[in-house]
Design goal:
With about 475 residues, the chain is an alpha/beta fold. The protein is built from 15 helices and 24 strands.
């Protein structure tokens, strides 16, 4: 006798709630079909469901997302970095307290030795006909942030070495819920032949059909839940083994929405607007923003970041502020609207020659017009860099290209190529290749859990 097992999954929603009613509609229909046929089925989220760039998530500090997963009858979830490093230790410690699903993550530990009640290293389940299945979850090791927040993420291979052998002895099938990224998933498949399925996320890769490495099937459904993933495993009870592993993703971009979920989200939106409706400051004149020229608001925010971090200088890109503030009362909702990014301040040390290269690169046309997606940035394009503690003098070539003539410190002296300077900026630039000198800096001090918008609120109170 053969038995089919069905696993539906989502990953990296990033609080794209416009799409969520389609997710719940799809899952309701599929799960109803499986239940009608008496077939084993489970629904799983692979992390980064939370994103504080959305007003609802911000107002509920992520617990709205847990309510939505409950509402959609999820069975399991693992955590992503947007759950783990974008809120205080206490907020994350209690994020899943009301979850009606099980949370599994084998490499997350609280450094104060008080583990959340909801945290499981691994989970064992059974199908309707007794097939034993082991689930293990892993999340990406952003320990530069986690350690500051009172958590630690152990290496993924250390966690797998600890649990896979035991699971192999006690279950028939092993499934890894991986918020690690495609390249790590592929390496795990190469190293661990006993893992049958890796359901992935984090790097927003979309695998329309399964990828097979050795004995393992790898799958992932992109970003924002425009696709939903499905894994189908066929177990032969006579042979006592898996005889088929399938995985694919379904495009639900234009499918019908679940109206009950639409109503639920509208109610959440109303509550969010009330919670964030408190007035922060009253301004007599509108505050304008510009992505390509220095504005008073961005200049003052850069000054605040420099003062708050006690850095030698600071630099922020103008694209961080998305819209103007009209005259009148400014609320937390307004501040969130114009600065939605889950971005923290960071201080890096740079030699003078490295600082000069960063400044030159940041004032290039390519940098300013870059339409960045990711690294915490939720805006349209990077925009012009604004500085505090530095006077940057530029001129233009005959072809219209801007270049840096000289950079002076507050004392009027030029930047010393061999001197070390402590520069405050957005943590976005410590990732990837946007500004390599910052990304490669040996010293990075992140300031958590405060976002730049917290400092923007402080700036508005003090300066406007």
């Amino acid at each position: 006798m053969e038995e089919k097992l069905y696993f539906y999954y989502t990953n990296d929603l990033h609080s794209n709630f416009e799409q969520w009613p389609r997710v719940t509609a799809f899952l309701k229909e599929e799960k109803a079909l499986r239940e009608e046929r008496g077939e084993s089925n489970w629904t799983i989220d692979i992390g980064d469901h939370v994103d504080r760039s959305h007003l609802i998530t911000e107002a509920y500090m992520g617990k709205s997302n847990i309510q939505l997963l409950n509402h959609a009858n999820y069975d399991f979830a693992t955590i992503g970095n947007n759950e783990g490093i974008t809120m205080s230790h206490n907020d994350f410690h209690h994020l899943y307290d009301e979850a009606e699903f099980q949370v599994v993550c084998a490499n997350l530990k609280s450094t104060n030795d008080v583990q959340p009640s909801w945290l499981n290293e691994k989970i064992k389940i059974e199908s309707v006909n007794g097939i034993k299945i082991g689930l293990i979850g892993l999340t990406a090791p952003f320990n530069a942030f986690y350690n500051l927040l009172g958590w630690h993420i152990s290496p993924e291979f250390e966690a797998l070495d600890k649990h896979i052998a035991e699971l192999k002895e006690s279950v028939d099938i092993i499934i890894l819920l991986s918020h690690l990224g495609i390249s790590v998933d592929q390496e795990i498949a190469r190293r661990y032949k006993d893992i049958d399925v890796i359901i992935g996320g984090h790097t927003h890769h979309l695998l329309r059909n399964a990828e097979y490495i050795n004995n393992t099937v790898i799958t992932a459904a992109g970003k924002h839940c425009y696709f939903i993933g499905e894994v189908i495993l066929t177990w032969d009870h006579d042979q006592k083994k898996l005889v088929k592993k399938e995985a694919f993703t379904t495009d639900i971009t234009n499918t019908a929405k679940d109206l009950e979920t639409v109503k639920y989200l509208n109610e959440m939106q109303e509550v969010a607007e009330q919670r964030l409706g408190e007035t922060v400051v009253h301004i007599e004149q509108p505050i304008e923003v510009s992505w390509f020229t220095e504005t008073p608001i961005l200049k003052e925010l850069t000054n605040t970041v420099r003062e708050w971090t006690k850095a030698d200088a600071a630099m922020l890109n103008s694209g961080l502020l998305l819209d103007r503030l009209p005259s009148g009362d400014v609320t937390y909702k307004d501040i969130h609207r114009i600065c939605p990014h889950p971005i923290n301040p960071v201080v890096v040390d740079l030699k003078g020659n490295e600082l000069m290269e960063v400044i030159r690169a940041s004032l290039s046309k390519d940098f300013m017009e870059l339409k960045l997606k990711g690294f915490g940035f939720r805006g349209e394009l990077l925009g012009r860099m604004v500085f505090s503690g530095l006077t940057v003098e530029t001129a233009f070539h005959n072809n219209g290209g801007e270049y840096v003539k000289q950079v002076l410190l507050d004392n009027g002296q030029p930047v010393d190529p061999d001197e070390t300077y402590y520069i405050a900026t957005a943590d976005t630039f410590t990732f990837g290749r946007l500004l390599p000198e910052i990304a490669k800096s040996d010293t990075k001090r992140y300031y958590v859990p405060e976002f730049l918008r917290n400092l923007l609120a402080d700036t508005l109170r003090r300066k406007f």
